[in-house]
Amino acid sequence: MTVPSKEQIIEVLKPIHDPEIRIGIVDLGLIYDVDINDDGVARIKMTLTTPACPYGEMLLAMVHREVEQMEGVSKVEVVLVWDPPWDPKEMCSDYAKDMLGIW
After folding, report:
1. Tens-place pLDDT, residues 9-36
2. Are 69 and 16 spatial neighbours (Cβ–Cβ below 8 Å)?
3. Distance in angstroms (rounded) separating the CA atoms of residues 98 and 12
4. At what angle do helices 56-68 and 6-13 cross, to 10 degrees?
């Protein structure tokens, strides 16, 4: 069985949107790192826009569920980090920056 690449995992995460601001978590720059080993263990390091995000648990669960369903993934670890803190200037897409008026 072939394990998915980091890029394939990121593609699966792109449709997940922060329901509060309706922008994808990848576009927002909330996914800090994705790693998968040869045994299919995927580790996703991510943050939230704020520690008080009311949708934090839901977003973490969505990330876990989407990656867990990928062929070749045997285990998923979603690690929530606050360092470095999320900065809107680090968003990954011009679309997200336009939507939030940040340049």
Report:
1. 999 999 999 998 889 999 999 999 999 9
2. no
3. 23
4. 130
pTM across the whole model: 0.90
In order of their start, the domains of the chain are 6-85 (3.30.300.130)
Q: What is the pLDDT of residues 32-69, one digit of tens each?
A: 999 999 999 999 999 999 999 999 999 999 999 999 99
| Per-residue CA distances from 14 to 33, 38, 87 (Å) | 14, 23, 19
User: What's the start-to-end Cα distance of the chain, in Å?
Assistant: 43
**Residue owning tokens 């720059």:** 29
Q: Mark 83-92 as b/e (b = at least 16 C-beta within 10 Å).
A: eeebeeeebb
Which value, in Å, is the radius of gyration of the alpha carbons in the chain? 14
Q: Could you give the CA distance from residue 15 to residue 85 in angstroms, rounded to a whole number?
A: 23
